[in-house]
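Something for you to look into today, if you have time. What I am after is a single protein written out in full by you. I want to see for myself how the chain folds. Could you add the entry underneath, on a fresh line?
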Amino acid sequence: MQLHDLAPAEGSRKNRKRIGRGPGSGTGKTSGKGHKGLKARSGGSVRPGFEGGQMPIYRRLPKRGFFNIFKTNNAVLKVQDLERFEDGSVVDMDALRSAGLVKGRRDGAKILGMGEVTRKVTVKQILVSKTAREKIEAAGGKVE
């Protein structure tokens, strides 16, 4: 085989369709778009969800529910998770992130009273449940 023998496989290459180049081309005059109408216009096409004038499905179906735009996305932690901090350390959102307890986009965190805590930690700017507050203060810690 020589360099001049190289050719693409039969049928793998097609000439592009030259639209609007006279009646002899087969796609002259209306350029394969038919006569008038929305699809014949420049930029003309129906929008997504259009059902030809029939009442579309998103308007036929009843709407249910409510989406709260003010909802906060808090990470939920247990009191026993505070055991991984040193005595006397300050626990805030930055400390929780660096310890790997809070991941992703969160508006805050809340500590619930599951488990036990023995470390004296200061909890700052974190929501704390009533039982969790009692357990942290019983261990000698503070909630601010």
Summary: The two ends are 84 Å apart (CA to CA).
